[in-house]
Amino acid sequence: MEAMLAIAVGVLTACGVFLILRARTFPVLLGLTLLSYAVNLFLFASGRLQVGAPPLIRAGAAYADPLPQALVLTAIVIGFGMTAYLAILALRSLAESGGDHVDAVSTEDARQ
Question: What transmembrane ranges does the database entry give (predicted)?
């Protein structure tokens, strides 16, 4: 189980970095989202996955650590806000420059 989770985190990270290095804004946005997913999986796995463990602490019982779950929930909310902000920023850049290139070279500058 841990190997599969580590491979999933590695693949998400590699795909995210690959997309971030593209010259267009929307692949960069998707790359940041994939990196966010990879970090969420990493944080969740850092809490030592326990199947069938109760979320509440009883005397002498094994329990699931609630801190990584709270961190992942917070990271999901922050990641969604960041993705929404970057999507609006990319759309504004597209409207202003006429293209979705990261350098934001406008069509008027390209003609000269």
Answer: 6-21, 28-47, 67-91
Confidence at residue 1, expressed as pLDDT on a 0 to 100 scale: 74
d(CA 30, CA 20): 8
Fold of 2-49+64-110: Helix Hairpins (1.10.287)
Is pTM, for the whole model, over 0.90? no
DSSP-derived secondary structure for 61-85: -----HHHHHHHHHHHHHHHHHHHH
Which amino acid appears at position 94 of this protein? L
The domain segmentation of the chain, as residue ranges, is 2-49+64-110
